[in-house]
Amino acid sequence: MDVPGPTNRWEESRRKARSLESTIDLKLVSFSKLGTNTNYKIRGTKNESPQSSTPLLGDDSKHMIDTMALEIEQLLSKLQEVNDNMSDYVNAMGHTSPNTTLVHTLQRHRDILQDYRQEFRKTRDNINTCREREELLGDVMSDIHRYKSAATNRKTDLYLKENEHIRSSERLTDEAINIAMATKENLHSQKKMLGGITNRLSNIASILFTILFGSSKNILSLSSF
User: Fold this and answer.
1) Which has the closest alpha carbon to 72: 142, 145, 23, 33?
2) CA separation (Å) from 140 to 48, 131, 148, 221?
3) pTM to 2 decimals?
4) Which of 44, 95, 141, 191 is the least crowded, having the fewest Cβ atoms under 10 Å away?
5) DSSP line for 50-110
6) Is 224 helix (H, G, I), strand (E, B) or coil?
7) How do residues 174-190 score in pLDDT, each as one tens digit?
8) Residue 127 DSSP code
């Protein structure tokens, strides 16, 4: 098998660099759009109620972001290796006859790699910031929900206590009415009983009066003879 010459190794490294740069560029565009959409969703939740809010970065989205970030990091590492190979080639050629074209080309690839790294870090930091804001927002929403739940529970407790107070008052009122009715019936019975006793006493008094006064009249009649 033929061993690639110096020129072929340089061209092969440049083809790999351009291929990696093209792939990284597409990945960074998608990654940047994902970060922008996430930031837009965060800003769009200011007027949402706690009941309607949902996690902005679900498990699927977080997994996709993490996977894409890992892929970009691996591609940047591969591009760095290719640039190092081209740098070794330029350094080796520089000992004989420095080639300004090769040096300029290598520097351009280095600048592209540096720009990609900066863009990647910026987008990644933006997404991490959105994640932190989402977690903070989730904590705030949870606190609000707990506060409202506690307030609702307090209102419910007050309502139950007031309701129990009303029921207790109703029970006391019913008991007072029952006692009054029972007292009234008792007094009525006592009145009827006293009325009967009074009638019997009147009858007895009449009988005694008749007996007493009737006997006196008979004695007087007998003595007149």
Assistant:
1) 23
2) 13, 14, 12, 120
3) 0.55
4) 95
5) TTT---SS-HHHHHHHHHHHHHHHHHHHHHHHHHHHHHHHHHHHHTT---HHHHHHHHHHH
6) coil
7) 777 878 777 777 777 77
8) H
